[in-house]
Amino acid sequence: MGVGWSSQKLYPYFPQGGQLKSDSDYEEKGQHGLRVVHRKALLEALAEEVPIDSIRFSSKLKSIENQTQEGSSFTIIHMEDGASIKAKALIGCDGVHSVVARWLGLTAPVNSGRWAVRGLAVFPDGHGLNHESQQFVTIGKRAGFAPINDNEIYWFLVCKFSSKEVTDNLAKDFPPLYLRVVQHSDLSTLTWAPLMSRFPWDLIFGSLSKGNITVAGDALYPMTPDLGQGGCAALEDAVVLGRHIGNLNIRNKRLVAGEPLAGALERYTKERRWRAATLITGSYLSGWVQQDGSGWWMKFFRDVIFYRLLFTRIFNFIQYDCGVLPFLIYSF
User: Fold this and answer.
1) Which positions ≥6 away from 47 have C-beta within 8 Å?
2) pLDDT score, position 11
3) Which residues form the signal peptide (predicted)?
4) Whether the Cβ atoms of residue 141 and residue 163 lie closer than 8 Å to each other
5) pLDDT value, residue 27
């Protein structure tokens, strides 16, 4: 997964010209660039911070039930394996096809009209490349890769076609360097899926929380990966959510549930609503402009307006300070 997308090298690639046209380095001084991590490594790092018995594996959420007892509300979570969990709060981080988001009344994500192939290339003897991301863009297709370490490279190809023949068909016009990366792929890592997105107005006008239930990450704002902000935005959610709940507990000098907790979740969604809607819009616009259309007006919009005027502003937008977590000075 990518955490913090700021492309260091962008190559608009036009097969008709037979050459690469190198663009400038878009990573401004003092800003953070691309960070690529193994999803497994991230999950293991997060799991180490919570008690072992608090994690359930292979437990898929089936349904949600809200109940009130003696003036206090709580949630009953029913799992597909028959188990039921009673919770003071439910934060749905259950992905693009979120059961929690559907329960809140958010509309289902829509297909953006593009598909993506992703994979991990393995070079046992080392790939010999600099640790910088590269992208290659042509009409209707966009590809790129980013080294994870000295032996592994994450790569992707986004297109408007439904085919897995990357090296023989979709990527045949891209540079040999990109094809070399793809040909070293570990086949078990390949994924092929449509790029899903939620309409931004669903976040602006929709209900993002009800009582002690809300959503975060892809469950809240599935977006196309053109800005590489999926992982970043989810981490932002965690900080903002933790800050609102933490400040609530600090003010009360105890763990708080019920209406005060519902208020904290509502403040969290209020803070994240416009940020998430803007990321969805910017990501979709970035992908659409760079890939779609070959007419003169689209070329003019892409090469003159987007790359020269809008591109830097959009990527500057991802440099975002979501604040810090509160310092807990009380023992609850």
Assistant:
1) 55
2) 43
3) none
4) no
5) 47
Interval 268-291: pLDDT, tens: 999 999 999 999 998 888 887 776
Sequence-distant (≥ 6) Cβ neighbours of residue 80 within 8 angstroms: 59, 60, 61, 62
Beta strands in 37-109 (DSSP E): 61-69, 72-79, 84-87, 90-92
**pTM summary value:** 0.79
Confidence of residue 161 (pLDDT cuts 50, 70, 90): low
Up-side HSE of residue 207: CA atoms within 13 Å toward CB?
11
Partners of 68 in the beta sheet?
73
Q: Any idea what the Cα angle at residue 281 is, between residues 273 and 159, rounded to 5°?
A: 135
Is pLDDT above 60 for 116?
yes
The tens digit of pLDDT for each residue in 228-257 reads: 888 889 999 999 999 999 999 888 888 888
3-class DSSP state of 103: helix
Burial class, 27, CB count within 10 angstroms (exposed 0-12 / middle 13-18 / buried 19+) = middle
The answer to whether the Cα torsion of 154, 156, 162, 166 is positive or negative is negative
Q: What amino acid occupies position 102? A: R
pLDDT for 291 equals 67
Angle of helix 258-291 relative to helix 230-252, nearest 10 degrees? 160
Contact 90, 75 (CB under 8 A): yes
The amino acid at residue 15 is P
What is each CA distance from 284 to 110, 172, 226, 279, 304, in whole angstroms? 12, 25, 7, 8, 19
Distances (CA, A) of 79 to 56, 64, 83, 86, 104: 11, 9, 5, 11, 18
How far apart are the C-alpha atoms of 97 and 111, rounded to whole Å?
12
Residues 267 and 273: their CA atoms lie apart, in Å, by: 10
